[in-house]
Write a structure and sequence with these properties.
about 140 residues; mainly alpha; two-stranded antiparallel sheet; 6 helices; about 55% helix
Length: about 140
């Protein structure tokens, strides 16, 4: 292919991608791809929340039990998670150290629980971590 043909194809496909038929195709393709990748991940890590037993596929997520998810994703440079994180899990042969949680339990866990010495323990409320002088000022 010479330079003139290459430029023609580049312009043609740029315009083609603006059409509704392309957008509909791409949207459908991405949804199917996302579901396939997410299915592979949850078939490995489990298809229900380990805390509450939630099984609705669209409510499930993968959790870092050590609460280092943000740090881990930043070190991998894969963005905020989601599909990129699921692809990373597949490419790395489903490494250990992850669990299935529903979105609600994942949010609650980060606020109320922590992983300590191989088990879940409830976090102490912040007001009880204060010195007695500070605690008196709060109460």
């Amino acid at each position: 292919m010479n330079e003139k043909q290459r430029e023609y194809h580049k312009l043609y496909y740029r315009e083609y991608r603006k059409r509704d038929e392309w957008k509909k195709y791409k949207s459908t393709y991405n949804a199917i791809r996302y579901d396939r990748i997410k299915t592979d991940v949850f078939n490995h890590y489990g298809r229900e929340c380990v805390f509450c037993g939630e099984r609705r596929f669209n409510k499930l997520s993968i959790d870092h039990p050590n609460d280092d998810g943000g740090e881990h994703r930043r070190s991998l440079k894969i963005g905020g998670g989601g599909i990129n994180f699921y692809i990373w899990l597949i490419e790395n042969n489903f490494p250990q150290g992850f669990q299935t949680l529903c979105i609600s339990c994942n949010s609650r866990k980060n606020a109320l629980w922590m992983w300590k010495t191989g088990k879940w323990v409830k976090k102490q409320p912040k007001c009880l971590k204060m010195h007695p002088e500070q605690l008196g000022a709060v109460l």
